[in-house]
Design brief:
heterodimer; A: alpha/beta; Rossmann fold; 3 domains; seven-stranded mixed β-sheet; six-stranded mixed β-sheet; elongated; B: mainly alpha; ABC transporter involved in vitamin B12 uptake, BtuC; 13 helices
Chain lengths: ~375, ~325
């Protein structure tokens, strides 16, 4: 009895809410864009915002480029919040833009997972929409937080780590010593990629993982760290696995300066244009085995577009699938064989953005990333 | 390790004795680290290759340390190191033959980069001295100004790689038995030592650090010298930025990452108190060598990466205590 009563109330409440939500845009005199359950706005009431950790890293540079390209396509300016390595600066920057009065459409690559709740709150109060990439607290789900947190996207770090590792051990002939440069120890992304590496070398008994030294995602630190490892292991090093191409370029220079280039193979992540060039031109021989391809350009444009479509009502948040709200996007494995394909235009097909605008989820390939057991 | 200010006081001889002892303490720490790491990794640590690795790593912080020590001698501090390195390093790369083909002014790129550093440093000094703002906060601001300039120069394009392979290979080459970078660092140290010892700039730095009001009363144009010292420190950081770019073979706005902490810690471990008036560039060399050996050794003996920074923090504090032990009674004011 009690149950039935509650469920009746619930149904009628839901129906009322739905009706109100559907009629909402009409009452507000906004374009009656489809039937969405969330609050929608006119394009002129929106500002596009993106946050970057800094602007001096090639990934971030590409990210900014992607945000701006989409902004241009949508005919809206893009505000860039630079965190400069500070969570506080990042959140304060978003709050300052929120205070201007327009509704925020945000795509963010947050500095730390722990920043996401504060950012989500700011967006909720503002009435805007956001999409988050890469970092989010482990127990958080966009669907639990609310419509304003439209989606979370990432790339499968395990797959990325495996791409580099597989090509690396094959290039090494299945035997020898590897040094690994993860990003930072407490980064989920880095941990996933390292898990991918370890998963691959399980099947190669003659491969030894000599050492693992985090190099802070930084070219200069990777150079210095590799120099110490060269002093420690010398000729035992046959392969260098890195969790990111910036670190690979630093390690590459260190190995080159040690006079060992040609004897050591490399793998990276991110397929930075200079690394793709190394695979194609091979100035020091065929030494770069692989790097997985994805671009800040695509991530930023995809995320911003999803949040934008939610804001203008072209996309109904309530009907998004679980994978769309928390999913992983396509990466390619670039090797010397196919590298030439990824050289032109930074590896981005010129028609990509137009196709994206038609289908913001076109690069989505799956749901949450699961770590391999053990 | 023998240079110390002669402040004209009666206790000069005794002070010199203390300084010698303090210098020995730092050397003892360095030797102890070398001994410990050699025992823990006899195969890789005590080798010529590794010695050259450590010296090559030490070169950049030593060069920064020469300028920074002079600033600290006056009782001031220069926190702009990493920003100046980024700005000067990026300027150097973009003015040299590089993959972005921005410009190539040949060898002039070197003095141009040093000029960028000297201007940034001189500006820090001028704002500090003329507007009477603590050097701590002005140089902190200048750090970000430098990083900002580096970021603008980096732009949104791809990493610029240096085209001159001979120049890129130069720092780690060892025609004289030691890495060129370290030899260059020694030359800069020699220059710093000569400045401290034989020029008005250096002598006044000690005088200002020892007692600024007395220095003013004796008619030393403190502001002018402070600006010059900051400009020199900026040029040293700029040279370090150029060396860092050559090491990378590429331009990076973060070429100086981690250098500020390393250099300041080395200055203090070396025995130049942040209060100023004592110490100097030569002492900083020992400080840098201690920290570079520590960084290298922790990796070579296989200390887990997650506890490396903890261990180096502990060793750092222990080194400062040990180095200052003989002088602890003389510290009248401690803040």
């Amino acid at each position: 009895m009690h149950h039935r009563f509650t469920s009746t109330v619930r149904t009628s409440l839901a129906a009322t809410a739905l009706t109100l939500a559907t009629l909402g845009p009409v009452f507000y005199g906004l374009p009656a864009a489809a039937e969405t359950s969330q609050q929608t706005y006119d394009k002129s009431d929106i500002i596009l915002v993106t946050t970057v950790i800094n602007a001096t890293n090639p990934y971030m540079a590409s990210w900014i480029e992607g945000s701006k390209a989409l902004g241009e396509k949508l005919g809206l300016p893009v505000e860039i919040v630079q965190s400069n390595g500070s969570s506080q600066t990042q959140i304060a920057g978003i709050q300052a833009l929120a205070a201007k009065g327009k509704k925020i459409v945000l795509v963010t690559n947050p500095l730390a997972a722990s920043d996401v709740p504060a950012i989500a709150n700011t967006i909720k109060q503002n009435g805007g929409y956001m999409v988050v990439w890469w970092n989010m607290p482990p127990n958080m789900e966009p669907a639990d937080v609310g419509d304003h947190f439209v989606a979370f996207g990432t790339y499968n770090g395990v797959t990325a780590g495996e791409c580099g590792a597989k090509a690396l051990v094959e290039a090494m002939g299945g035997k020898g010593g590897i040094i690994a440069l993860p990003g930072v120890l407490d980064s989920t992304v880095s941990q996933e990629r390292v898990a991918g590496l370890k998963e691959v070398i399980k099947d190669y008994p003659d491969i030894t993982l000599l050492d693992e030294q985090p190099a802070n995602w930084d070219q200069a630190i990777a150079l210095k760290t590799t120099q110490q490892l060269v002093a420690k292991y010398g000729d035992e090093i046959d392969g260098v696995w890195t969790a990111d191409d910036a670190m690979m370029l630093g390690a590459y220079e260190a190995i080159k300066k040690a006079g060992m280039i040609g004897e050591v193979k490399f793998s990276g992540e991110g397929a930075y244009p200079p690394v793709v060039d190394l695979m194609v031109a091979q100035p020091d021989g065929n030494v770069v085995a692989a790097s997985s391809f994805h671009r800040g350009y695509k991530a930023a444009a995809t995320g911003m577009l999803i949040a934008y479509k939610a804001a203008v009502g072209e996309l109904d948040v309530a009907t998004l699938t679980a994978d769309q709200r928390h999913g992983q996007y396509a990466i390619d494995c670039v090797t010397p064989e196919n590298a030439a394909k990824f050289q032109e235009n930074g590896g981005i097909d010129p028609t990509w953005l137009d196709r994206l605008v038609a289908d913001p989820f076109m690069d989505l390939v799956g749901g949450k990333v699961e770590l391999p057991n053990g | 390790m023998t240079s110390l200010s002669e402040t004209g006081s009666g206790g000069a001889a005794r002070r010199r004795g203390l300084a010698a002892r303090a210098g020995l303490a730092e050397l003892a720490i360095l030797l102890a680290l070398v001994a410990i790491f050699s025992v823990l990794n006899p195969h890789a640590f005590p080798t010529l290759t590794n010695l050259n690795t450590i010296l090559n790593n030490a070169a950049i912080p030593i060069v920064i340390g020469v300028g920074a020590s002079l600033v600290v001698l006056t009782g001031r501090i220069d926190l702009s190191v990493e920003g100046v390195m980024g700005a000067a390093g990026m300027a150097f790369v973009l003015l040299s033959a590089n993959s972005r083909e921005t410009a190539d002014i040949g060898w002039l790129a070197y003095p141009a980069a040093l000029a960028v550093g000297a201007v940034l440093g001189g500006t820090t000094g001028a704002i500090h001295a003329l507007a009477k703002v603590p050097s701590f906060i002005v140089s902190l601001g200048m750090w970000y100004v430098g990083l900002g300039i580096a970021a603008v120069l980096f732009g949104y394009e791809m990493i610029p790689f240096l085209g001159n392979e001979a120049a890129v290979a130069w720092p780690t080459a060892t025609p004289l038995g030691l890495p060129n970078s370290f030899v260059l660092a020694l030359v800069v140290v020699g220059l710093g030592w000569l400045i401290e010892r034989y020029t008005r700039l250096g002598r006044y730095a000690y005088a200002i650090g020892n007692n600024e009001s007395v220095a003013r009363m004796t008619g030393i144009p403190v502001a002018g010298f402070v600006v010059a010292i900051f400009a020199f420190a900026g040029a040293c950081s700029a040279l370090a930025g150029v060396m860092g770019s050559l090491a990378l073979g590429a331009g990076s706005a973060t070429v100086g990452v981690g250098m500020l902490f390393l250099t300041l810690a080395a200055i203090v471990i070396g025995g130049t108190p942040l209060g100023g008036g004592r110490g100097g560039a030569l002492r900083t060399v020992t400080g840098v060598l201690i920290l570079s050996t520590l960084y290298n050794g922790l990796i070579l003996v296989g200390v887990d990466p997650s506890i490396q920074s903890g261990v180096s923090g502990v060793v750092l504090v222990a080194a400062v205590i040990a180095a200052g032990w003989s002088q602890r009674a003389r510290l009248r004011v401690f803040k």
